[in-house]
Amino acid sequence: MKESAATDIRGIGVSPGVAIGKAHLLEQGQVAIPFYKLRNGAAVVAEVERFERAVAEVEKDLEAIKQKFHPELIEHAHILEAHQLILRDPQIYDQTIGLIRDQRLNAQWALKQALIKVHDLFKTVEDDYLRARVKDVDDVGQRVLRSLAGFPNGIIQEIRERVIIVARDLSPADTAQLQLERTLGLVIDMGGRTSHTSIIARSLNIPAVVATEKASRVIRSGDLVIIDGASGKVIVNPTEAQLSYYYEVQDALENYLKQIRRQAHLPARTLDGHTVRVEANIELLEEVVASRDNGAESIGLYRTEFFLLNRDHLPSEETLYNEYRELAELMAPRSVNLRTLDLGAEKMTRWAPRLDQANPALGLRAIRLCLHHKDLFKTQLRAILRAGAAAGNIRLLFPLISGVGELLQAKAVLNEVREELRSRRIPFDERMKVGIMIEVPSAVAVADLLAPEVDFFSIGTNDLIQYSLAIDRGNEHVAYLYEPLHPAVLRFIRQTVEVAHRARLPVTVCGEMAGEPLYVPILLGLKVDSMSMNPQAIPRVKNLICRSRLEDCRHFVDTILGMRTAQEIGFLLRTMVLRNFPEEFKFFDPDALTPKEIFSKA
Ligand code: PEP
Ligand code: MG
């Protein structure tokens, strides 16, 4: 701690709460290098093969990256060609294999030794330009080391103490590896409110700030850091006064949340007697306990792809079946909406087909990917249908449906699977309800045509906002344009609900908007039947529903739907919630969902 010269960094607060602790900078690209001696000749042969496989894998990666180069930039592809040559350079390749064979060293250590030698050679080079090329050797070496370690993106599991993790970027796969008990908070240079890392941080109740752009360059491991996961403020090496202020905020927030959690098990009924279902979004089975503890009435969204992210292989049908059955049994008689795989875009696995897509969010993703890889899709559908037989509470949810044709294709595969199970006399849930995510604007436009084909709609506002406002939900540069209150978004939600209700279908909102207390009056007024959110948000949302009048919310929504900009709507909304719910927003300034200055000094 310093008496002066604290550094402030600003980002977007994506998971509220205050964390205070030592920073741990994830050196992305750097992996730990184990050392061990191989026991016998067979182990040596196996280790050489492991090294060769890793080199071949990197070679393939480099080739794939090279193919991505725009034709006009093709002359720069020589850098990658150089990297490919370095990979097989005898000074590195032969030398490493020699060390594995002669000294019985493990591949990582042997490669490290070879790289050190190359470094020494480069030091003697006169020419500045050539000397700087050692960086290429390092890059290549790191690629092979990462491949050997099996973790292409960092090594979160090696953290040994409770820290605030600082990183340039965290993939959903990295985030899914977080050790909850050792992660006090997250500070990430990239991302936005609805990038999946932010979603997981909220589910795990880890205060997080993203889109800082520079935190990983400013913060060093060991620095004392305060992060305010609501306002997006990060203070590096705080002053005494800042530290004691934030300790007080931390206490006050915890007390408030403890108090409202006590009532979270009651139904969410408005003052004028209208009940709204409040459900949980989960990514992993482990979150079921938190969902129930926080008062979730059911699982509104299980993002099944997360179970697959950190695996080398697609789990067997049996493994999936056991996972889904366990979840259903844990939640029974409450329902569980199991969404089929939403892989692609930022959620890629090591075993899934690698796709070279310039624009993955608009590419082969979610249901499209499943329809292309029918075996994968069918394996999952079989596991889901079978698991449904156990407790009868599983409902199926297809992601990213863009129109009736696609939905019919998905349903045809589902019917094939049902037929197969029937003919093999394998028990499954014959009456499992089927719903779709409404998250593509075209689905809103044809909601009346989709409705007769399904049992329920679930509006995914994260993607619906991304696609209707044409902004990448994970791109920090356009994060300011991510506006849930944009009149287009509100009209889309209203349109979907109206069409669904005419067809007597229930509608859930399961995007992050549903877990944001500020939007409760809007979603109530838009007449959604249920709201599904990260489990930690449930007590606050339920508390606000119970203190609202549905009639007032409907009038309010009628008024704001006549407005032209998100700013005008936001202003009126904030004024209203501050007046009606001063206790709730005493801690969270709805302007930026920022903790307010509840104590005299900041
Ligand atoms: C959404 O898009 O709102 C949604 C809930 O799905 P995901 O965040 O997993 O894309
Ligand atoms: Mg989505």
Number of domains: 4
Number of strands: 19
Mean pLDDT: 87
Compute the separation of the termini in Å. Answer: 17 Å
Proportion of residues in β-strands: 5-15%
CATH class group of the largest domain: Alpha Beta
Distinct ligands: phosphoenolpyruvate, magnesium ion
Shape: globular
The major beta sheet can be summarized as: 8 strands, mixed
Query: Which ranges are low-confidence, i.e. pLDDT below 50, for 5 or more consecutive residues?
Result: 592-602
- Structural class designation: alpha/beta
Provide the spatial order of strands within the biggest beta sheet. 1-8-7-3-4-5-6-2
* Count of helical regions: 24
List the helices and strands and how they pair.
Layout (H helix, E strand, L loop, with lengths): L6 E4 L1 E4 L2 E8 L15 H28 L9 H10 L5 H11 L3 H17 L4 H5 L1 H16 L13 E5 L4 H5 L6 E6 L7 H8 L4 E3 L4 H4 L5 E5 L4 E4 L3 H22 L6 E2 L5 E8 L4 H7 L5 E5 L13 H15 L4 E4 L26 H7 L1 H18 L2 E5 L5 H20 L10 E5 L2 H5 L1 H4 L5 E4 L1 H9 L17 H16 L4 E3 L10 H6 L4 E4 L4 H9 L3 H11 L5 H15 L3 H4 E2 L4 E2 L7
Parallel strand pairs: 3-4, 4-5, 5-6, 10-11, 10-17, 11-12, 12-13, 13-14, 14-15, 15-16, 16-17
Antiparallel strand pairs: 1-8, 2-6, 3-7, 7-8, 9-10, 18-19
Helix pairs in contact: 1-2, 1-6, 2-6, 3-4, 4-6, 12-14, 14-15
The structure holds phosphoenolpyruvate and magnesium ion.
Magnesium ion (MG) binds next to α18.
